[in-house]
Amino acid sequence: MGRKYSKAENSWMFYDWANSAYSIIITTAVFPLYYKSVASEAGVSATNSTAYLGYTVAIATFILAMIGPILGTIADYKGLKKKFFIAFFLMGSLATISLAFVPGDTWLPLLIIYTITAVGFHGANIFYDAFLVDVAKEERMDEVSARGFGLGYIGSTIPFILSIAIILLAQKELIPIGASMASKMAFIITGIWWFTFTIPMLKNVVQIHSIEREPNLIAGSFRRLGGTFKEIRKYRHVFIFLLAYFFYIDGVGTIISMSTSYGKDLGINDVSLLIVLFVTQVVAAPFAILYGKLAQKFSIKIMLYAGIFVYIIVCIYAFFLSTTLDFWILAMLVATSQGGIQALSRSYFAQLVPKEKSNEFFGFYNIFGKFAAVMGPLLLALTTQLTGNSAYGVFSLVILFIIGGILLKMVPKPVSENVV
């Protein structure tokens, strides 16, 4: 990373390198394919298995939505942010490894363990995101956040390539394991990668902005939450942004989590899906960094609008998908914006909130994101089941991006921005 970034900034960004393996292998690629295979062998139809995965994503994110603000508020007290981060990080990484030990003929326990991994992954991200205010100054947040996403895309390709290689070699019977065991090895690789490369974050990132502890932390946390709601006018711009974020990030997250199942329903084979997803990660890395650079030139809001526009095109184009080439085009469109819109949303929010309440507000940030992640998969799942066609489910997400874009117009620029 060179001398441009501090040790704390580098270590914080490196966590994206660590946990992004989960995003691609568990959320997007190998796990959905493995689950679809297990469910199919158990007699579950393709449409229903996609719907069940959507419901599972909704349940996992609903759990986080319920506990996120309270955990975030407690973690604002001195010395607690790192402890909560470690607890959820360990839950997620160890549960990811345990996916490999679920019997290969049972799909329901697989979804239950997947729920635990998702709670751990997203729970750790509440505190990870909030650490941005501790490691970077406001004028550097866009660049640091975007570069973190860029590193994540680059880093995730390494365990992804290794996992794909094992799966393909198993399919061609060039190594003495079956396809099911190859997928399970991918789960183990993901958990170990996540665990190992989180060490710099654990060693070098510390909580700087905090609130002094009270005798009763839980009661005090509820009082602070209540106080924040009473002063909602004071933070009106923050909550308008959260409302905008609620809608557009819903569409982003749903497309990421359900893309593989959707491609599978279109009849695209596993090998093609894995290759597409790998190339998507490679393309997404420079574009995430580019979004950070362009935000400094054109403003964060303009680049967020650019991302929203691209996703509207993605939803419309997805409705007409019919070939593997179409899926490739769609994936490349997603690659241009998925990292950028997430990175800039994170840094925009970090610049809007009071630093000493960063965990509390990032708890809200995540609850809005998680509630959105409940609505999106449910919308897709219900539309898919009602119409019998996954394309209608993806197309229905257009409205979320449109509403999000309209609300974003009402949010003022951060103080650190000089360009509107």
Structure overview:
α1 (7-28) runs antiparallel to α8 (179-196) and α11 (236-265) packs antiparallel against α14. This protein has 420 residues and is an all-alpha fold. The chain is 80% helix and 0% strand.
Query: What is the mean pLDDT?
Result: 82
| Overall CATH architecture | Up-down Bundle
Radius of gyration: 20 Å
Largest sheet: none
Uncertain runs: none
Q: Kindly state the number of beta strands.
A: 0
| SSE ordering | HHHHHHHHHHHHHHHHH
CATH T-level topology: Growth Hormone, Chain: A
Name the shape in a single word: globular
Give the class from helix and strand content and strand pairing: mainly alpha
Query: What is the total number of structural domains?
Result: 1
Beta-strand content estimate: under 5%
So how many helices? 17
Quote the distance from N terminus to C terminus. 30 Å
- Helix fraction, binned, reads over 70%
What's the CATH superfamily, by name?
MFS general substrate transporter like domains
The CATH C-level name is Mainly Alpha
Short description:
Its main location: membrane. The chain is mainly alpha-helical. It has 17 helices and no strands.
Summarize this structure as a short list of keywords or feature phrases.
single chain, 420 residues, Growth Hormone, Chain: A, 80% helix, transport
Helix-strand layout with pairing:
Blueprint: H1 7-28, H2 30-41, H3 46-75, H4 81-98, H5 108-130, H6 132-135, H7 138-171, H8 179-196, H9 199-204, H10 217-230, H11 236-265, H12 270-298, H13 300-319, H14 324-352, H15 358-387, H16 390-395, H17 398-408
Helix pairs in contact: 1-5, 1-7, 1-8, 2-3, 3-4, 3-5, 3-10, 3-11, 3-15, 4-5, 4-8, 5-15, 7-8, 7-12, 7-14, 11-14, 11-15, 11-17, 12-13, 12-14, 13-14, 13-17
